[in-house]
Amino acid sequence: MLVCVSPTRAQIDTLRYAVNVSKYLMGTRVEATVMHHDVNVAQQALVRAFLEMERVEQLLSLHLETSEIARLNREAAATPVRVRAETFGILQRAQAYAARFEGLFDVTIGPVTALWGFNSDAPIAIPDAALLDSVSRLVNFRKLILNPRDTTVFFARPGMRLDLGGIAKGYAIDRAVEVLRNRGVANFLLSVGGDLYASGERSPGEPWRVGVKHPRNAEALLAKLIVRDAAVATSGDYERFAEINGRRYHHIIDPRTGYPAQQSRSITVLAPTAEEADVLATCLFILGIAHHTAQTGLSHYLGVDAEGHVYFDPSLIERQALQLFE
Fold first, then answer.
1. DSSP conformation letters of 13-30
2. pTM of the complete model beyond 0.90
3. Which domains does the chain have, with CATH numbers?
C-alpha cells in the first residue's frame, strides 16, 4: 500500500529551487539567481524586479532621449526644469555625497565624460588639453541648483551636463531588491556589471560566496568573500579603457582634473545599499587606497593600487571570510 505524506512547513522552507535570469540592461549584463521553494513565486518576483530596473533606466539614463536626465541636459541651463520626486531625491543624495567627499564624486561630470567618449561607441581618444580644461570648469556640484519647493533643477552654468553613471546602477539594484523582498523572496543574488546585492543565503547553512575579479588577469579572481544582506560594488580600470602611448586611459574620471584617476587598479566596497557601495567604490578609486583615512568613513574595502599592491580592511577576514588569490 502506498501512503502519500505531505511535507511539513519546515521541510518546504528548506527545499529551494534555483531560478536564474540574465538580461542586458543599463549598458551591462544583469544576472539574478533566486532560491525559493515556489518556482512560480520566484519567476514572478524576478519579472517585477527586472521591470523595475528598466523603469529606473528609463528615468535616469544618459542615453535615452526621453529620460528625465536627458531632458535636464537639454533644458536645465535655460530654465529650471521640474522633475519627479524620485529623480529629485537621487540628485539631492548625489549632491550630498559630493559634499561629503569634497568633489571626488560629482554627477555634473557629464561634459568631461562626453568629451572623452566613454559613453559612446566612438574610439577613445585623448581630448585636446585646452578643450578639456575648458569643459572641466563646468564640473561643479555646487552649481547644480535644486529647489525642493517645486522639485526643479537648474544649471547655473551653460554647458553643464549630468552623468549619473556612478550612482544610477546602484540605485536600480536597491529598487530591485525592494521589489524581490516585497514579493516574498528573501534569498537571492542580483548582479549588475561590477555591482551586486546578496540577500539571505544560497541554501540553509550555505552563504553566498562572491568573487572579485583580478584587475590584470581576466581569467583569474583576486579574492572571494562571503556576503549576506549587503551590497558589493567594484570600480576598476579594466572595463572601459584604451592603451595609448603605453598608458591606460579608463572611464573613471577624477572630477578635479578631468583625467582618468591614476591611483588605483580596482576598488571593491561593501555597504548596506548598492547605491552607497557604488558611490563609495568610485570615491575610493579616485582617492587611492593608500590615501584612505578614517575621515572618509570608508570601511569594508579591498583594493589594488596603481603599482599592484593589495590593501584590505582586516575585518573582512573575520566577517566575510576573505580569501585572497594573489
1. HH--EEEEEEEEETTEEE
2. yes
3. 10-57+167-324 (3.10.520.10), 68-155 (1.10.3980.10)
